[in-house]
Specification:
Elements lengths: L3 E5 L6 H16 L5 E5 L5 H10 L5 E2 L18 E2 L4 H11 L3 E5 L5 E6 H9 L8 E4 L1 H8 L2 E4 L7 E7 L4 H7 L8 E5 L3 H10 L3 E4 L7 H10 L2 E4 L4 H10 L13 E3 L4 H10 L4 E5 L5 E6 L9 E6 L16 E6 L13 E4 L5 H11 L6 H14 L10 H14 L3 H12 L8 H6 L2 E6 L2 E10 L3 H20 L4 E8 L4 E7 L4 H4 L4 E3 L2 E5 L4 H15 L1
Parallel strand pairs: 1-2, 1-16, 2-3, 4-5, 9-10, 10-11, 11-12, 13-14, 16-17, 17-18, 20-21
Antiparallel strand pairs: 5-6, 7-9, 8-12, 14-15, 19-20, 21-22, 22-24, 23-24
Helix pairs in contact: 1-11, 1-12, 2-14, 7-8, 11-12, 12-13, 12-14
Length: 548
């Protein structure tokens, strides 16, 4: 697979989420996948930052949104034309490249209009009666198209509207036919017909084109110079010259100045809407500086997105990085309940009832006979220690203990001392810049039927700091509840030594009647022996809120 693959955890990532992403990406690279990168859907919390710094590991790539952008389906070699090019040159571009829309750019490569092959044919081939003789061109463009020499007069870049007449009849008939036109707008085309040439010069026409490579006699040239008549001599025959004359029209005369445009960084869905509802066959795509990036058509929407995801430590789109629903998901490595999205193809889906996703990833290393380098082993150990709260959480399994024993010598760390250092350095609320940062650092959304709720968790050493901040935390919970459009928002404050959680809830006041745990005061419950959100808190809330 040539796609870029991002291994990424959930939004508001904890240590297990980031550590498992880094470790699993490293495992995939060990297995020969070169295009695999660890990513994170949110900034590391203070605990994770401490661990990364201590182990000397760089944070993963930050991806706040993986929603496909216009740039992901855009070909970057657009065929363009300049405003001064001729219709003939434009038609050659259409033919050579098999395109339907040609962007017209200025000297700075900024799009100033488009030429559509369909609209060009409508305008050029299905012209009204008044346009049958009309030719918009300049003397210079006309001379270039006809490969002609100036016998009289001089070149000019000024675009003029001329009326084309072919002098292929007797002089009397010809003179009568051009009688109703302003001589200054007449373009007369004839071969070796001195009488027609003389009649045109005497009439004082704007331009006389002599075809077949013929010239004009000296007396007629002097008469033309005196009358201000420009004369061109072209090697083409009259029929070809008449056709080439029309093709000399500058492209600016056919350019549509109003066109659909979109930026390369805009969501692909915006492009889809423009293509489906604008009625235009193509949309001009511009870079951030306004220069042309390319041209997108409906076929662009069929191109594959150049990247895909491997989800770790979650399997629900509600917790995934923004835009994950629009990107191919290749694998899921997790240890939570199932709430996974459907996929179009079979994928690797690995969910194990263990205390940490890092336990699952470390197991994969061991099963494949690959020893992680010390920093990766340390990350895996940290993920297990923090997610199982030093192996005290009820989610802890014998496999977690077994993997910890395997990782310790590889990381060169004793798990208990390492974990105590982590919690001592980063526990509580003061490790965060704001109370909302602390609350959201590990905050997840859930739903119980029609009831939407969110639960955050902060580990502490003693509850003194919590009681000092309790009122402010409740106000912060209220703001988070409103911002996230939840029916209830809760915060688990878990003392890792007493193995007790205080649960602060905002919303669903009737919770008190069914909570089943002591209510210390309004909105605050004491849950002794509860340490796990996944295995204890959320299942209990699903049951209680479902009953409500």
């Amino acid at each position: 697979m040539n796609k870029q693959i991002y291994v990424i955890g959930h939004r508001n990532p904890d240590t297990d989420s980031i550590a498992s992403a880094i470790a699993y990406a490293a495992l995939k690279r060990h297995q020969g996948y070169r295009n695999v990168t660890a990513a994170m859907a949110g900034r590391p919390n203070p605990q994770t930052s401490y661990i990364l710094n201590r182990l000397g590991v760089k944070p993963p790539l930050y991806l706040a949104d993986v929603r496909p952008k216009v740039r992901d389906v855009l070909g970057r070699s657009p065929v363009t034309a300049g405003v001064d090019q001729t219709l003939r040159e434009a038609l050659e571009l259409f033919h050579q490249h098999g395109i339907r829309v040609l962007p017209v750019v200025n000297d700075g490569r900024e799009p100033v209009g488009v030429v559509s092959l369909l609209k060009l044919s409508e305008k050029y081939l299905v012209a009204g009666t008044g346009r049958k003789r009309g030719v918009d061109t300049s003397l210079q463009a006309l001379a270039t198209a006809l490969e002609a020499d100036f016998l009289s007069g001089s070149s000019s870049d000024q675009v003029e509207h001329l009326h084309l007449f072919i002098g292929a009849m007797v002089e009397e008939s010809f003179t009568g036919r051009i009688a109703g036109y302003d001589p200054a707008t007449l373009l007369i085309m004839t071969g070796d017909r001195p009488s027609i040439q003389q009649a045109a010069i005497e009439r004082g026409v704007r331009l006389l084109v002599v075809t077949g490579g013929f010239g004009v006699s000296g007396p007629l040239l002097r008469q033309a110079a005196a009358a201000g008549v420009t004369i061109l001599s072209t090697p083409f025959d009259t029929a070809t010259a008449a056709w080439m004359c029309r093709l000399s029209t500058p492209l600016s005369c056919f350019t549509e100045p109003k066109f659909e445009r979109i930026g390369v960084a805009e969501p692909l869905e915006h492009l889809r809407l423009k293509l489906l509802h604008s009625g235009e066959p193509a949309v001009v795509v511009v870079e951030e500086d306004g220069t042309l990036a390319g041209v997108a058509t409906k076929s662009s929407l069929l191109r594959q997105i150049p990247y895909a995801l491997i989800l770790v430590d979650h399997n629900e789109l509600g917790q995934a990085v923004s835009g994950a629903e629009a990107v191919e998901i290749l694998e899921v490595i997790d240890h939570h309940k199932l709430g996974n999205p459907p996929t179009n193809h079979p994928i690797t889906f690995m969910v194990a009832p263990v205390g940490s996703t890092c336990t699952v990833v470390a197991t994969l290393y061991r099963e494949r006979g690959i020893e992680p380098e010390p920093a990766i082993a340390g990350l895996l150990l940290a993920g297990i220690m923090t997610d199982t709260v030093i192996l005290k959480s009820p989610t802890t399994t014998s496999r977690d203990h077994e993997i910890v024993a395997w990782l310790e010598p590889l990381a060169g760390l004793e798990h208990g001392a390492f974990a105590r250092d982590i919690f001592a350095s980063c526990s509580g609320f003061s490790a965060h810049a704001t109370l909302e940062d602390a609350l959201r650092s590990d905050f997840k959304h859930f739903n119980a039927g029609e009831t939407l709720f969110g639960v955050g968790q902060v580990e502490v050493v003693g509850f003194d700091e919590f009681f000092e901040l309790k009122d402010a935390l409740r106000e912060t919970l209220r703001k988070v509840k409103e911002a996230d459009k939840l029916h209830m928002a809760g915060l688990m404050v878990t003392d890792i030594y007493s193995e007790t959680t205080l649960f602060l809830a905002e919303g669903k006041n009737e919770l008190a009647h069914l909570m089943g745990y002591p209510q210390k005061e309004p909105h605050l419950y004491e849950l002794k022996g509860v340490m796990s959100r996944k295995k204890q808190m959320v299942p209990h809330l699903l049951k209680v809120l479902g009953a409500l």
